[in-house]
Amino acid sequence: MGTTWRIHQFRKKTPLPQQFAKQKEETGTIISDDPILIYKGLVDDPRNSQTSWIKTSAYLFIVNELSEVSGQDDAIDAAWIPLNNLPKLYASHDEIVTRAIDYLSCQSLIKIVEFFRKLSQY
Questions:
Q1: Which of 35, 52, 92, 93 is disulfide-compatible with 43, CB 3.0–4.6 A?
Q2: Within 13 Å of residue 75, how many CA atoms lie on the same side as its CB?
């Protein structure tokens, strides 16, 4: 089973609990209720100028069980996409995805190290 990535943008400033409900409503997918902040700050965007710029907060949500995505309303094209087959992403989105992948890789390495530490105690 390969790793998959799901990008869903929340265009309005919405509190996280409401975003969980919106995610379920828009895609039919249940996500973790403990998101990991991957990035917060300015993003490289062609709409940026000297007088205005785009800021974002990007969170990693863990999906414990992949289910069929049923896009609704403004998420009609919602789909699971394998990480090795991502389309060209807009502006700084590829950097944000890379940060999420790096985070997940580090978490996996930490678990491996913890496993070997426990083994060495026996």
A1: 92
A2: 21
